[in-house]
Amino acid sequence: MADEEAGKEGEKKIVHVYPLVKHTDMNEEMRIEAIELSITACEKYSSNYEHAARIIKENMDKKFGIYWHVVVGEGFGFEVSYETENILYLFFAGNLAIVLWKCS
């Protein structure tokens, strides 16, 4: 019985409550701003990913120029063309993925 409990304990999922950046080539200032904006929007609109993506996009358009695109969700793949130094791919709260990129 003790062996079964030890086996189950080793299989626990790790849920990240901090942003886990998988890929970015943004400069530090833009990256920090984009991460903070993404986390705030996803926490505020946790039940509506479409609305969270819209809020992130509108704010990025205002702060860093137009043509930003945002995807927020779980279990998706992507391949995009983007302007250099304008992509951010991160995970938040476990398996919630956020992708921001600029393409004009």
Topology of this structure?
Elements: H1 2-10, E1 20-24, H2 28-44, H3 49-64, E2 68-73, E3 87-92, E4 96-102
Antiparallel strand pairs: 1-3, 2-4, 3-4
Helix pairs in contact: 2-3
Describe the structure.
This protein is α+β, with helices and mostly antiparallel strands and 104 residues long. The protein has one domain: 2-Layer Sandwich (Protein Inhibitor Of Neuronal Nitric Oxide Synthase), CATH 3.30.740.10. The chain is 40% helix and 23% strand. The chain is built from three helices and four strands, in the order H-E-H-H-E-E-E. The protein has helices at 2-10, 28-44, 49-64, and strands at residues 20-24, 68-73, 87-92, 96-102. It has a four-stranded antiparallel beta sheet, with helices on one face. Strand 3 and strand 4 form a beta hairpin. Helix 2 (28-44) packs antiparallel against helix 3. It is globular and about 40 Å long. Pfam families: Dynein_light. One of its GO terms (biological process) is microtubule-based process. Belongs to the dynein light chain family.
Cα separation of the termini:
60 Å
Q: Strand pairing plus helix content: what structural class?
A: alpha+beta
The percent range for strand residues is 15-25%
Number of strands: 4
CATH superfamily: Protein Inhibitor Of Neuronal Nitric Oxide Synthase
Figure out the total of helices: 3
Rg calc = 16 Å
Q: At CATH's second level, what is the architecture?
A: 2-Layer Sandwich
Largest sheet: 4 strands, antiparallel
What is the class in the CATH system?
Alpha Beta
Q: Which residues form runs of ≥5 with pLDDT under 50?
A: none
Mean pLDDT: 88
Helix content: 40-55%
- Quaternary state, please? single chain
Q: What is the third-level CATH name, the topology?
A: Protein Inhibitor Of Neuronal Nitric Oxide Synthase
Identify the overall geometry. globular
